[in-house]
Amino acid sequence: MNIEIRDAALEELNKVQFGDREGIRILAEFVGTCSIATDIQLQIEEKQADDEMITESGINFFVPKKSLESLPSQIFLDFKSGFGYKISSAEETFGYNFKLKPRKAK
Predict the structure, then answer these.
(1) Can you tell me the distance from the alpha carbon of 57 to that of 3, in angstroms, rounded to the nearest whole number?
(2) Cα–Cα distance, 31 to 38 (Å, whole number)
(3) Which residues make Cβ contacts (< 8 Å) with residue 46, sequence separation at least 6?
């Protein structure tokens, strides 16, 4: 999987203070009732055993194997002030207004 970080998103991510083993977990799963969509969450966490680690522009992304099945081989991460992160691919936009959830208390 490839993650292309757009300039606005990179600028925003560079403001985040990551711990030594931390990165951004991308959780994605198909959900649906009368339509099918992909629910995506962004969370600051440490890598887990079943994660694929992708490093882009010095930022680690952790994507669980199950989430890889729900995402295309390339995604774009963008940011718009007042709205949040946008995740898209060449084929579709997965959504706007994604917030980077802070790390969970240990």
Answers:
(1) 10
(2) 6
(3) 19, 21, 22, 23, 62
Token reading at 23? 């990165």
- CA 11 to chain centroid, in Å, comes to 15
Total Cβ atoms within 10 A of residue 20 = 5
pLDDT tens digit sequence for 9-35: 999 999 999 998 999 999 987 665 554
Q: What is the pTM of this model?
A: 0.88
Tokens in use for 64?
């669980």
Quick check: helix, strand or coil at residue 11?
A: helix
Mean pLDDT of 25-48: 79
Amino acid residing at 68: L
The per-residue pLDDT for range 84-106, each reduced to its tens digit, is: 999 999 998 888 889 999 987 76
The CA distance from 42 to 51, in Å, is 14
The Cα–Cα gap between 5 and 3 comes to 6
